[in-house]
Amino acid sequence: MTSPGQPPQGAAFLVAQVGAHAAGRFAERVEALGLTPPEVGLLRMIAGEPGRSQQSVAADMGVVPSRVVAILDTLDHKGLVERRPGVSDRRHHALHLTDDGRQVLMEMRQLARAHDEDLCAALDPDERAQLAGLLQRIADQQGLTPGVHPGYRQLSAKRRR
């Protein structure tokens, strides 16, 4: 606990402070690729499981399907994803990256590595591994969906305004 007039020093505050900073910097970096963080997250999810449905992506992201459709429409317009008729149910679309989508994802991975290096520059490799392990334990204990940024809901809502 801090005394009046002192900045907060608890771990939860620092995680939130660094997290907000990291998310903002990441958004700036992916903007250079013409993307938003929700678009990057969706590309990554599709790459990890090609052919998955819009509904499964929405469920994993914790958003209503119409938000996923809006992001997919943008990615489709940019030529990065394609919707194919589903194998088991042709009414549902199977999502796949295009060649351009795979290329952008490779560029995004390089950008993400640089982002991680920049953000963690004050730590040596052992400290980075320790920090990642501790944060993973917290994420697991809090029941967060692995690999899904909870801020996608807010970022995609802001973009639509």
From TrEMBL:
Coiled-coil parts of chain: none
Residues annotated as domain HTH marR-type: 1-140
Alphabetical list of Pfam families matching this protein: MarR_2
Domain of life (superkingdom): Bacteria
PANTHER family: MARR FAMILY REGULATORY PROTEIN, TRANSCRIPTIONAL REGULATOR, MARR FAMILY
Name of the featured protein: HTH marR-type domain-containing protein
Source organism of the structure: Dactylosporangium maewongense
